[in-house]
Amino acid sequence: MQIQYLEIVTREVDAVCAYASANGVQFGESDAGLGNALTAVLAGGGLVKVRALA
Question: Which of 21, 24, 25, 29 is deepest in the core (most CB within 10 A)?
């Protein structure tokens, strides 16, 4: 199965991003238009978004 879009909402944004980064995922800067989410394009073309639980 290939991920096309995955949104993770968590209190542990830094930990999730660190885990993903350790597995080769590169996040960009936070985007205010997306609730200050960090986004990354996956190798297969999918998109992952991580934002803090409000």
Answer: 25
* Residue 40: closest CA among 1, 5, 14: 5
Question: In the structure encoding, which two tokens stand for residue 45, read together?
Answer: 């073309």
pTM recorded for the entire structure: 0.86
Instruction: Yes or no: say if 43 and 24 are a contact pair by the CB < 8 Å rule.
Output: yes
**What's the first-to-final CA gap in the chain, in angstroms?**
30
Strands (E), 1-54: 5-10, 38-41, 47-52
**At 52, is the pLDDT very low, low, confident or very high (cuts 50, 70, 90)?**
very high
Tokens 């991003």 sit on residue: 17
